[in-house]
Amino acid sequence: MMNAATAANSSVYSQTQCRPLSSDVRGSIPYLNERKSRLVVRAGGGGRPPKEDGEKQQQQQQQPVSLRLDDVNPVGLGRRSRQLFDEVWRKFSGLGQISGTIRSDDQEALDALLVREGPMCEFAIPGAQNTTVLVVGATSRIGRIVVRKLMLRGYAVKALVRRADQEVVELLPRSVEIVIGDVGDPATVKAAVEGCNKIIYCATARSAITGDLFRVDHRGVSNLTKAFQDHNNKLAQSRAGKSSKSKLLIAKFKSASSLNGWQVRQGTYFQDVVATKYDGGMDAKFEFNENGDAVFSGYVFNRGGYVELSKKLSLPLGYTLDRYEGLVLSVGGNGRSYVLILEAGPSADPSQSRLYFARISTKVGFCRVRVPFSSFRPVKPDDPVLDPFLVHTLKIRFEPRRQRPVEGNATMKQDLRSFKLILEYIKVLPTGQETDFVLVSCSGLGIEPSRREQVLKAKRAGEDSLRRSGLGYTIVRPGPLQEEPGGQRALIFDQGNRISQGISCADVADICVKALHDTTARNKSFDVCYEYIAEDGRELYELVAHLPDKANNYLTPALSVLEKNT
């Protein structure tokens, strides 16, 4: 029986068993081993050689066994495994060509391969052939393994790389579509996401320079999420709003009549009798100007004062917000921050309503702000979590406190008590069942103390931008990466920055691939490392039995006990 206090945040699972590759394939693909149960005796690296002509077989048996440095060099092993994989993939791809013909020698070789290796379809995932995955950082230690695992399972793979010289091309299978670009450049990122259904982000900065960390770990993730959302928006528009993936329009401010129903209110958090004599007052208005913009503007000079714009929601018949993921606002202005407030409860009895808030930041000019419902917190800590089904009123509040000067305007004097917000539209994002974006972050272990803080700062900023994007996400924080075969040891899945061991690149890659279609992995962040024995009284997890199954799905039970929206 699990201890609820410990299982709420972490768990350990032994790996499950699947049909292994043959000995020669397994030996040539060093870090591609599938997960196996610790209770199953593992096969050795050798195996029975395929039947050949008698003379060749005798020659092979008479040759002395010699081991060179190249035989254990990961680069050499990877090159040989890539050549073998490309040959296998070319032959299997030929089966799907209706108009193509297979030569007799190719057919014989393919038949021999099927007999010798067994059915490769054991790795196939339903729907993989219709899914294109963009791998960012495809030439990294984890990315190279992710690419091959995806292709073994039938996915179409695109790889975003900074350059496509011969050295980079040799690291990837020939059937991978290579896109040249920089994650720091929104234009090239926009082209990379075209036609993609999911993204796995394995890129990491090559140096500890602050500029590189910001460009790759923070700005790169932000650019990918925005480009991917824009791509999904185009697809939703082509479906003319008839799909469950289409956004629901709450308000679109295109004429003066679209402002009907919105009310401007003023208020204070507390009343200071002495300070009131010296307050400069506050004022706000919501109007449709001559430029065709709906502008909410004003100032708040009162201590503890605020102004807000509110409206009672009116959804189309048969629609409720519990079917959606969160809000998306297209806004412009002078870069102030605001508080979004949702009022939820029985619409017939306002006294039973509860307030939930989430803070948003804007920038100078126009931008899209995505706010998942999961980011709203109750104003009263004892109130339950937000139930979108009960939401009936939306408020946009400005308050002078917690305002920060706009970056880039340090030479200009900024009055943080005034604001201007241009509203273009407010929509709700459709909910999803699967992860759209898998981000490989880090736990901070194994990083030099002198650069750990700045690395983690950039990583956490990238994680925050992904959470705010509205995409379904999975954030994996592995321990120190190790170059060893995967599937050999049990893993710990934990939350709370408490892990202390490393993990192989192959195991991290396997988690990324499995998270793509695992509903329990959606909107979760977790640390993962190899199993270890904690000190007495400091146990962070408990071992949970997991029976091996054909699906080899260890991720679902491991993540089911972890918290969402983390």
Rg over CA atoms, rounded to whole Å, is 28 Å
Largest sheet: 9 strands, mixed
At CATH level 3, the topology of the largest domain is Rossmann fold
CATH superfamily of the largest domain: NAD(P)-binding Rossmann-like Domain
Tell me the count of domains. 2
Q: Widest sheet: strand order? A: 1-21-23-19-18-5-2-3-4
N/C terminus separation: 26 Å
Q: Please work out how many helical segments DSSP would assign.
A: 14
Q: Output the CATH class name of the largest domain.
A: Alpha Beta
Low-confidence stretches: 1-9, 14-52, 94-104, 107-122, 541-551
The general outline is elongated
Report the structural category. Answer: alpha/beta
Strand content: 15-25%
Helix amount, in percent?
Answer: 25-40%
Find the count of extended strands (DSSP E, 2+ residues): 23
Q: Residue-averaged pLDDT, rounded?
A: 75
Secondary-structure arrangement, i.e. CATH architecture of the largest domain? 3-Layer(aba) Sandwich
Organism: Glycine max
GO molecular function: racemase and epimerase activity
Domain NAD(P)-binding: 137-233, 437-518
Region (Disordered): 38-73
